[in-house]
């Protein structure tokens, strides 16, 4: 009996020592080492890829898209459609975003895709103006109509074939922070007119903020909308 108690005590002591050692290694030393390396070598990314304006205030992350809409007439009216603030460059649509319906105490936004099939509403693979409401085709056609109306000016007319795909479709998460150079250039005349700037000034702004493919061959050229709008704000005040 005494031998059994002694063995149990030794096993318990060994287990407690192992727990203590592993807690220190895995719960203290390892997290501190990883955090230290991340802060030393990847400080910006480790802190959320924050973007600051010229005053030094954090205004967002380069990894998460934002909307640039006018304030609602009635903030309590959830059904009121948001209208874009046309003085800013606009991001991709965010049709995949949904509201939190589980914990209604907090007004949270959930990211996600529309989950509509590519041929949703299409007839023989073609979207027509008679597409059923609520289908992907109907959403795309409505978005294209809005893009044309919003970005056409007295001196510059947008044609349907000028509208790139990312102007009328959301990303898988609905939070894509980037747009294509083609969509950014499509907005140049409208942004210039709304802000009292020259088209050449705004066009150069887009060119300066166009990023090439990662490592020269991965992905597509892109423009970060938040960074572009921060530069636009600074240009408008200069």
Feature tags:
238 residues, mainly alpha, two-stranded antiparallel sheet, 7 strands, 41% helix, elongated
Description:
- It is a single chain.
- With 238 residues, this protein is mostly helical.
- The chain folds into 2 domains: 2-43; 51-237, no CATH class.
- 41% of the residues lie in helices and 8% in strands.
- Strands 5-7-6 form a 3-stranded antiparallel sheet.
- A hairpin with a 5-residue loop joins strand 1 and strand 2.
- Helix 5 crosses helix 6 (199-208).
- It starts with a helix and ends with a helix.
- The model has no long low-confidence stretch (mean pLDDT 87).
Q: β content, as a range?
A: 5-15%
Element-level helix/strand string:
HHEEEEHEHHHEEH
Q: Which bin fits the share of residues in helices?
A: 40-55%
Distance between the termini: 88 Å
Number of strands: 7
Strand order, biggest sheet? 5-7-6
Map the helices and strands.
Elements: H1 2-41, H2 43-46, E1 50-52, E2 58-61, E3 98-99, E4 109-110, H3 136-151, E5 178-179, H4 181-186, H5 188-195, H6 199-208, E6 210-211, E7 222-224, H7 225-237
Antiparallel strand pairs: 1-2, 3-4, 5-7, 6-7
Concise summary:
The chain is mainly α and about 240 residues long. Helices cover about 40% and strands about 10% of the residues. The protein has helices at about 1-40, 45, 135-150, 180-185, 190-195, 200-210, 225-235, and strands at about 50, 60, 100, 110, 180, 210, 220-225.
């Amino acid at each position: 009996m005494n031998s059994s108690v002694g063995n149990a005590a030794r096993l318990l002591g060994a287990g407690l020592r192992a727990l203590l050692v592993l807690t220190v290694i895995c719960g203290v030393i390892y997290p501190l080492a990883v955090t230290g390396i991340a802060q030393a070598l990847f400080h910006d990314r480790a802190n959320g890829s924050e973007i600051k304006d010229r005053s030094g205030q954090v205004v967002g992350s380069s990894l998460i898209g934002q909307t640039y809409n006018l304030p609602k007439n009635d903030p309590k009216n959830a059904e009121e459609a948001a209208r874009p603030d046309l003085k800013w460059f606009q991001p991709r649509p965010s049709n995949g975003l949904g509201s939190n319906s589980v914990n209604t105490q907090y007004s949270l936004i959930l990211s996600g895709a529309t989950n509509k099939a590519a041929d949703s509403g299409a007839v023989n693979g073609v979207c027509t103006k008679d597409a059923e409401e609520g289908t992907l085709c109907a959403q795309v056609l409505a978005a294209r109509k809005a893009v044309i109306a919003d970005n056409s000016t007295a001196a510059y007319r947008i044609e349907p074939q000028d509208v790139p795909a990312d102007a009328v479709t959301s990303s898988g998460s609905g939070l894509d922070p980037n747009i294509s150079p083609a969509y950014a250039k499509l907005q140049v005349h409208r942004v210039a007119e709304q802000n009292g700037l020259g088209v050449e000034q705004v066009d150069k702004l887009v060119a300066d903020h166009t990023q090439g493919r990662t490592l020269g061959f991965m992905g597509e050229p892109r423009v970060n909308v938040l960074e572009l709008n921060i530069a636009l704000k600074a240009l408008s005040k200069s």
